[in-house]
Amino acid sequence: MTSPVRIPLSDIVLLSSKDCGAPTPLRAMLHDENNGVRQNRVTPNPSSSGASTLHWASKGTVCVASGSPVAPLAAGASPGNVGLPSGGGASVVSRGSSAAVRSLRAVCIVAAIVTAAGSAPASAARTPPPGSKAARLTETRAAPPMWQTAWTSAMDFYEGTAVNATARDIAPIAVGGTSVEVRLSNAWSGSSTTFGAVTVGVQQGGASVVPGSTVPITFNGGSREITIPAGQYATSDPISFAVHTGESLAVSMWVQGTATVSVHYCCSGRIDSYATLNGAGNQTLDEPGTSLTLATTHMRWLSAIEVSGTPAQGTVVAFGDSITDGFNDDGQGWPTPLQQRIALLPPSQQVSVVNQGVTGNTLTVFPSTPPNLTYALTSGGLPGVTRLSSDVLSLPGTRDVVLFLGTNDIWFGGLLSPGLPYGTSASIISAMQSVIAQVHAHGMRIFGVTLLPRTSAPPGPRQEVWAAADQSNLAQVNAWIRSSSSGFDGVINLASVVADVYNGQCDPTALFGPYNSGDNLHPSEAGELAMADAIPTTLFQIPEAPQLPQGVAATPTPGCAGAVQAEQALTLAQTPSTSTTTPTTSASARPKPSNHRVVPHKDRGITVFDTAVIGVAIVVLLGVAVLLVVWRRSVRKRRTRGHEVGGTPAHAGRPTHLRRSDRR
User: Do 451 and 429 form a contact (C-beta atoms < 8 A)?
Assistant: First the structure.
């Protein structure tokens, strides 16, 4: 038996569009010693953090990274399962093959290398995020095709009924790519929903699409129609469609029959979705958008867009409530200016920051019977611990999670469940520990954000009162988040950044005036920008991104302990070239993302010249392989004749298990 060797590029090709942590299994195609192709797949092992299972359908011996065999499979053995520990890679030991097969395999290796060289940028773009299970399983191989999430909108409620109608959702994409997949959600419907046609194009403005940019989207291997069961979601087939960073895509969906509309319920000021009147039929190809007369801020059905062929380094999920969602800030939230900062870095140093904030969301589960109604039944979405799997762990390319939930738990606990164990610091901390464990089990990192200071809302008919007990719970949760025993991979202290500790003020329990949207809870646009500027992008294993100019003068108050903490937090996110003196913000407010695109674009790929060069190289290599095979056969024949002349068998004196004729 030969020594264990790493599976070369020609022998294994990762075909899945998902990370190992996603529900779709990672599939692989492996060439066995007969040069046949057998299907294998890698799936996560939920019982062991970082471990995976390799379902093997080929012959040979599978080994871990150290080279020690773990499950020898004899020739002709049935498919089996092989455990791969965290950090392990797969190796294979061939059980002998003909010179022709070995030569052809060598040609395949070189041809694959030549092909990879001809499309080096695309190959480099598909490197799995460091630390993910896919990265650990492919650490010594060329980068496989990889998908990453470039936009999200968590479905959190339902709104009305669609009957034979078309909707068009607008989604600004964080990072560009050469192919896209879309995810449609039927999370809030009690019955199946059938989409008879779905298309994607580039938004020109409003409901209109750039002429000629519309392409059809298919599901399940080519079907234009998809039926999604109640409470489920579906991801499309990969669609070849080049998209640029910051560009807005228009996804149009025609609903056959009658359907309850699942929506993302937020926020005033920004139009996210357009729709026809009921009965208008299939208008997915209406590029001018004249039939889509109903405009709303609520995204319909579209919950995620994924891209491949991007040089970006993975996805960061902002997992939060209305503060993340962008309530009182035109639905932007701090992830938007954070992505604008990251966009100032070279494309290969960027990550996509996707917003999975839900207005009114709690982290913990509340009782669901009157009078203690959970806010999920009145548009607060499913609790964070419940939606974690669908809204975070299932998103392709996710490497980091930013957890920013808990303030609604405290307020709802005091209001809806007085005297009951809901919304307490202990229940919130326990839920955070559960989320941390699940995120880590999927090979991702998680960062905790301190809960922002808040006070009672201004007097009114629906005033939200923030009691002393609420403030005590918030302080206890923040102290735990900042502690070294929390289990977070890092802490982002945004509570100090937006506290009222600037320009002579010193009240860490309230929002700084210019950062307050007016309800004493939600940050203003300036506050969201200040938070985005205070997040060190080095946490996400990329360089520190330049900070954006602000429109508010905010000088930490001398002698205020809270101001010292704010200054420390702000300094962490400054680039080396930025002054580290007392931060004072000025200049213009952050630019709003543009939704305008007028010039259609074409997919860029390997040129004709590149293809010709690769083809010539492969032909030459094949010729060399054939010559090698002929030469080896002629040498073997001469040796055989020499032995037969002397009357000695060619394999006399050799152990039986080493005779070639016995191993065919």
Answer: no
Parallel, antiparallel, or unpaired for β 315-320 and 398-404? parallel
Do residue 118 and residue 165 come from a single domain?
Answer: no
How high is the pLDDT of residue 391?
Answer: 97
Residues 6+ apart with CB under 8 A from 558: none
Which pLDDT value is given to residue 68?
31
Q: For 180, what's the count of Cα atoms within 13 Å in the CB-facing half-sphere?
A: 30
pLDDT score for 10: 30
* CB-count burial class (<10 Å; 0-12, 13-18, 19+) for 538: middle
Statement to judge: residues 127 and 197 lie in one domain: no
> What does the block give as tokens for 521?
């809870």
Same domain, 359 and 504: yes
CA dist., res. 20 & res. 131, Å (int): 12
In-domain check, residue 423: yes
- What confidence score (pLDDT) does residue 369 get? 54
Q: What is the pLDDT of residue 375?
A: 57
Cα gap 341→330, rounded to integer Å: 19
End-of-domain residue from the set 145, 167, 199: 145
467 within a domain of the structure (yes/no)? yes
- Spell out the alpha helix ranges (H) of 9-126: 99-118, 120-125
pLDDT reported for residue 25: 29
Give the residue ranges of the chain where pLDDT is below 50: 1-145, 577-606, 642-664
Q: At 62, phi and psi to the nearest 5?
A: -95, 135
Number of domains in the chain: 3
pLDDT at res. 79: 35
pLDDT, residue 461, reads 78
Question: And the tokens for 28?
Answer: 């692989």
Say whether both 327 and 215 belong to one domain.
no
Pair 348, 314: CB distance under 8 Å: no
Q: CA 502 to CA 522: how far, in whole Å?
A: 18
Is 346 within the bounds of a domain?
yes
Asked whether the beta carbons of 654 and 660 are under 8 A apart, the reply is no
Instruction: Tell me if 55 sits within 8 A of 40, measured CB to CB.
Output: yes
Query: Tokens in use for 203?
Result: 């938004």
Residues 6+ apart with CB under 8 A from 129: 19, 135, 148, 313, 314, 315, 397, 398, 399
> Same structural domain for residues 53 and 178?
no
Same domain, 298 and 352: no
> Which range marks the domain in which residue 459 is found?
312-604
544 and 494 inside one domain: yes
C-alpha–C-alpha distance, residues 97 and 89, integer Å: 23
Q: Domain holding 188: CATH number?
A: 2.60.120
Q: CA 573, 579, 585, 586 torsion: positive or negative?
A: negative
CATH number at residue 389: 3.40.50.1110
CA 615 – CA 635 distance, rounded (Å) = 31
User: What integer pLDDT is reported at residue 377 of this predicted model?
Assistant: 59
The rounded distance, in Å, linking the Cα atoms of 284 and 282 is 6
Report the alpha-carbon angle 590-593-597, nearest 5.
145
Angle (nearest 5°) at CA 449 between 446 and 451: 145
Residues 188 and 319 in one domain: no
Q: Which residue type occupies 201?
A: G
